[in-house]
Specification:
The complex is a heterodimer of chains A (about 160) and B (about 150).
Chain A: H1 11-19, H2 33-50, H3 57-70, H4 78-88, H5 100-117, H6 122-136
Helix pairs in contact in A: 1-5, 1-6, 2-5, 2-6, 3-4, 3-5
Chain B: H1 5-9, H2 13-22, H3 27-32, H4 38-56, H5 62-74, H6 82-94, H7 106-118, H8 128-145
Helix pairs in contact in B: 2-4, 4-7, 4-8, 5-6
The chains are: A mainly alpha (about 160), B mainly alpha (about 150).
Protein name (chain B): TetR family transcriptional regulator
Chain lengths: ~160, ~150
């Protein structure tokens, strides 16, 4: 980590900053695959907090339109954003080849916009991000050593 | 040819070209060959608008997603990517969400329109009389728009 430049903001702070328009949207690119994963999970949590799986598309569309217009400089494609929301709600939608930059932009900016819609407090936002970080943590591989004491004894040979 | 003489007589020249194309073995491809006829292109766009509005207005827009998946599967085209999103955008733009399709180039939009209009005659297809009604309505809309 550079001693000169400050560390990058945590996602919760970044979401708050983007919601308040304190930082330009273009600064919101994840630094690593792990961070990208955290953003994606946080987006999913946020979407499921805001919408039901069968929420009317018009309602989803309104939220997407609000985010797209609010962050107009990021030029997010509205339909791609809507598809990512619907995917997060468990719907089978065509999202296979959405550009990684677009995905990240949607995850960050839409999350920020939804946090604003939900009037989430800073604490609630940080809790959600912490939950996303926990969910993004890699599951440890099971060790190769097996507990011998737990094995059942082999049957006696006849 | 699927259409009979009565059908052909009811249409304008552009309408006859469209109906002829719909009677071919590969309707979407045949319709796309009308791209050098401004009258036929205008009529196709109106026919597309009439067809999708009569099919989808008042329904859940998610039905469009399912329809597009079915259409692309029938055409043996990929159902999970950009083409599917563009097809959904073009259809939904005609039923009240015009902003969705403004980034889609004209040529791609025309191709997708050809697929959707061509799908009208996918077996079993809509009844011939209904097809005539749609074409006539599209002709009137095209005439009014000139």
């Amino acid at each position: 980590m550079s001693a000169v430049f400050p560390p990058p903001p945590r996602l919760g702070h970044l979401l708050q900053a983007v919601s308040r328009q304190d930082v330009p949207a273009r600064l919101g690119a994840p630094l690593s695959d792990t961070e990208r994963r955290v953003w994606e999970i946080a987006f999913g949590l946020m979407v499921r907090r805001r919408f039901l799986t069968d929420s009317p598309l018009a309602e989803i569309g309104r939220s997407v339109a609000t985010a797209v217009h609010f962050h107009a400089a990021a030029a997010l494609p509205a339909l791609d954003a809507e598809m990512l929301v619907r995917e997060a709600l468990g719907e089978k939608v065509p999202v296979e080849d959405i550009d990684a930059t677009v995905r990240s932009g949607v995850h960050l900016l839409l999350s920020a916009s939804l946090a604003d819609e939900l009037a989430m407090t800073d604490g609630e936002l940080d809790d959600l991000v912490k939950q996303a970080e926990e969910l993004a943590a890699p599951i440890p591989e099971p060790s190769g050593e097996e507990d011998v004491s737990s094995r059942s004894a082999p049957p006696d040979a006849p | 040819m699927v259409q009979n003489g009565t059908l052909v007589q009811t249409a304008t020249a552009a309408g006859r070209h469209v109906l002829d194309a719909l009677g071919e073995e590969h309707p979407a491809r045949s319709l796309s060959r009308l791209s050098d006829s401004p009258g036929a292109v205008r009529l196709l766009r109106e026919l597309f608008t009439v067809a999708v509005r009569r099919s989808f207005v008042g329904r859940d827009p998610r039905d469009v997603t399912g329809y597009v998946r079915d259409l692309l599967e029938y055409q043996s085209m990929p159902t999970g990517g950009a083409l599917a999103r563009e097809a959904e955008a073009v259809i939904r733009s005609a039923v009240g969400e015009p902003d969705l399709a403004y980034r889609i180039p004209d040529l791609r939009r025309f191709e997708l329109i050809c697929y959707v209009v061509g799908d009208l005659v996918r077996p079993p297809g809509i009844p011939p009389a209904h097809l005539i009604d749609l074409v006539e309505q599209a002709e009137r809309r095209a005439e009014r728009a000139r």
